[in-house]
Amino acid sequence: MSGKLAIVAAGGTGGHMFPAQALSEALIGRGWRVVLATDERGAFYADKFPAQERLALSAATAKANDPVGMVKAGVAVFQGVMQARQAFARLNPSVVVGFGGYPALPALLAALLEKRPTVIHEQNAVLGRVNRFLAPYVTEVACAFPTLQMAKPAVKARAHVVGSPVRPEIRDLAQVAYLPPEVQLRILVTGGSQGARLLSELVPEAIAKLPEEMRGRMKVFQQARAESMEHARKIYRNAMVDCEVAPFFRDMAGRLRQSHIVVGRAGSSTCCELAVAGRPSILVPLKIAADDHQRFNAKLLEEAGGAAVCLEDELTVDALAGALNALLKSPERLARMAKGARSVAVPDAAEHLADLVERTAR
């Protein structure tokens, strides 16, 4: 089969998988073949992933204070490296691209052992643990945010700021003008792949406290945990709010296109998609996120005037209701926020990263 082949290693969360998918689509458009190396959690987000093949590599992680878990994780990663090397002997990839997270580790380690060209991409404003470990050894380092926290000076000096690749349907929203609300008020509530319980339970209660006139012309699209869905629907029903509640929206681009404001976590994909789509937001960084990276992610949008940031420790039903009320009754402010969000967007991040991958492979 003709064409160069790239191994794209990602998994665990949508924050890793969505940029990996966007890069893969860009590479395929240039005549490349793509094989995805992932884990079981990553497979949940890979239903539309355009890989010709998927490699299920053994991988695991453990807390530093769990010596037994560390040994088990080490054994799992070693097995994954051996599996990857066996696959490489058959596929002979021209380059291996990792998107962070422990599922990407075996493929990158195998590539380094075989001295194959390697690229890592960091989606967050803080260099993650796996990428932090790999960064001094890989061929090239790419990142989404110019403020690459936790990176050593030598790594930061050679990092390529390319933005975070977004899916084509999200990128298309960069050409869609933001129209402030006139009659209907449309709110999108996302939870991210982790820590969604707080928003699942708190947002409906906050919306129920909004003025009746506002609730009467509101449409809410809310991602919620399965165990929280019926409770959320009940609150909305009692508050006379039109809603659609689901555990996951496959058509996120369609929801973003319709929304006037987004309430969500501050994962890298969320922040970069909000910027490209030019949508105002209220962001609640996940408190337990490693190295507080979601707070640093949110800072970019906040400083650009595109987002209001509420820390978990300060978030109450009344505080969120007040923030929503203030924004929804001010179309002019929402329009300014939309403009601010779009000012930091990098819609062509997938192409920029694909350029780097091709240069590295050569």
Automatic annotation (TrEMBL):
Subcellular location, record wording: Cell membrane
Gene3D superfamilies: Glycogen Phosphorylase B (3.40.50.2000)
InterPro entries the record matches: GlcNAc_MurG, Glyco_trans_28_C, GlycoTrans_28_N
Reaction catalysed by this enzyme: di-trans,octa-cis-undecaprenyl diphospho-N-acetyl-alpha-D-muramoyl-L-alanyl-D-glutamyl-meso-2,6-diaminopimeloyl-D-alanyl-D-alanine + UDP-N-acetyl-alpha-D-glucosamine = di-trans,octa-cis-undecaprenyl diphospho-[N-acetyl-alpha-D-glucosaminyl-(1->4)]-N-acetyl-alpha-D-muramoyl-L-alanyl-D-glutamyl-meso-2,6-diaminopimeloyl-D-alanyl-D-alanine + UDP + H(+)
One cellular component term from this protein's GO annotations in UniProt: plasma membrane
Domain Glycosyl transferase family 28 C-terminal: 187-352
Domain of life: Bacteria
EC annotation from Swiss-Prot or TrEMBL: 2.4.1.227
Record-annotated Glycosyltransferase family 28 N-terminal domain positions: 7-142
GO BP annotation list: carbohydrate metabolic process; cell division; cell wall organization; peptidoglycan biosynthetic process; regulation of cell shape
Pathway where this protein functions: Cell wall biogenesis; peptidoglycan biosynthesis
Molecular function GO terms recorded: UDP-N-acetyl-D-glucosamine:N-acetylmuramoyl-L-alanyl-D-glutamyl-meso-2,6-diaminopimelyl-D-alanyl-D-alanine-diphosphoundecaprenol 4-beta-N-acetylglucosaminlytransferase activity; undecaprenyldiphospho-muramoylpentapeptide beta-N-acetylglucosaminyltransferase activity
Alphabetical list of Pfam families matching this protein: Glyco_tran_28_C, Glyco_transf_28
Binding sites annotated in the UniProt record for UDP-N-acetyl-alpha-D-glucosamine: T13, G14, G15, N124, R167, S193, Q294
Membrane topology according to the record: Peripheral membrane protein
Keyword terms of this UniProt record: Cell cycle, Cell division, Cell membrane, Cell shape, Cell wall biogenesis/degradation, Glycosyltransferase, Membrane, Peptidoglycan synthesis, Transferase
HAMAP family: MurG
Function: Cell wall formation. Catalyzes the transfer of a GlcNAc subunit on undecaprenyl-pyrophosphoryl-MurNAc-pentapeptide (lipid intermediate I) to form undecaprenyl-pyrophosphoryl-MurNAc-(pentapeptide)GlcNAc (lipid intermediate II).
Family of this protein: Belongs to the glycosyltransferase 28 family. MurG subfamily.
Protein name per the record: UDP-N-acetylglucosamine--N-acetylmuramyl-(pentapeptide) pyrophosphoryl-undecaprenol N-acetylglucosamine transferase
Species for this entry: Caulobacter radicis
The organism's taxonomic lineage, starting at the top: Bacteria, Pseudomonadati, Pseudomonadota, Alphaproteobacteria, Caulobacterales
Chain's gene name: murG
